[in-house]
């Protein structure tokens, strides 16, 4: 009975599809999709109401090709740029890391006393001791060397460029959009081309910090030069001041507070770049913060962040004190601070006799370059306004 039923089923299958064509067709239909090409979708037509559904300008490929072309053709040039940065950075780093910490602390405390007074000197002394006490001294000195190197190159590049742009308005209009782009571009965007052109390490970190922190000193140098009162410039010209005397004895002294504000902003931006630059293997306090974030170690990240804040406070106080208007100071810089104390002790033990000079009416008065230089300097020392000009005009009439 069972055999009959099995033969019946077999006969039914073989008679209905003896060559197994249905099975072959079904299997081929299931496997042919691997070899068939994708169905071509009809091209999308430009829709005026939504024109930006698709990319119209291949800006990303343009930038990629430009960077690749620059790397291939100008890599030796960028390697040469590394040389002065590397030399300066190594000098600062060796000076700050090879000295014993007490000597370095004493040096910065005396420097703060000289520039900002005894109170800031004591404050700097305490803060540097705190950095060493929390275990961030070596990293703080590396960060200090990075920031000082970036600041030095920003001053070397930004100060002459700002002076030149202040004198050429058309050129300033061309450079201003570039400065806007440098300030508004996210800091992370700088890292990729810098790594491709300069590699990784402390030197590329300094270069990316220079690019990021350069615009403020250029802008504020331009602003400071343009804010010099025109009557003082005319008074200096009337006394025969040369362009060099005009710049170094009138414009720069009066613009110095604004320029130092730019230096201060450059320092703050350089310190803010420390953590971001640590992503390209830059050492220092930023590396501590990055490791703390990666390990979820809030204590390690807090040590690095506290060190950055302390360095920012110290450098901010120092730059603001240097930017103080020299006309408001009662004494010269070499008469104050530790240098003034040493000079006072020196002259106390080794007094110098003053030479007797001839009466004023014994020598005829005539104008020369020194008189012109002293007269131009008097424009900035006697109030820096129209009163100095009136005073000089009265002397001239007498």
Automatic annotation (TrEMBL):
Residues covered by the ABC transmembrane type-1 domain: 140-319
GO cellular component terms attached to this protein's record: ATP-binding cassette (ABC) transporter complex
Keywords annotated in UniProt: Cell inner membrane, Cell membrane, Membrane, Transmembrane, Transmembrane helix, Transport
InterPro entries: MetI-like, MetI-like_sf
Cell compartments where the protein resides: Cell inner membrane; Cell membrane
Topology class, membrane: Multi-pass membrane protein
Membrane-spanning intervals of the chain: 105-138, 144-166, 187-214, 266-286, 298-315, 335-352
Gene Ontology biological-process entries: choline transport; glycine betaine transport
Pfam families: BPD_transp_1 (PF00528)
The keyword Cell membrane is assigned to this record: yes
Composition skew (Polar residues), residue ranges: 370-383
Feature: compositional bias, Low complexity: 22-31
Disordered: region residues: 1-31, 358-398
Keyword Nucleus: no
GO molecular function: amine transmembrane transporter activity; carnitine transmembrane transporter activity
UniProt xrefs under NCBIfam families: PRK10952.1
PANTHER family: GLYCINE BETAINE/PROLINE BETAINE TRANSPORT SYSTEM PERMEASE PROTEIN PROW, GLYCINE BETAINE_PROLINE BETAINE TRANSPORT SYSTEM PERMEASE PROTEIN PROW
Family: Belongs to the binding-protein-dependent transport system permease family.
Protein name: Glycine betaine/L-proline transport system permease protein proW
Native source organism of the sequence: Xenorhabdus poinarii G6
Taxonomy of the source species: Bacteria, Pseudomonadati, Pseudomonadota, Gammaproteobacteria, Enterobacterales
Primary gene name: proW
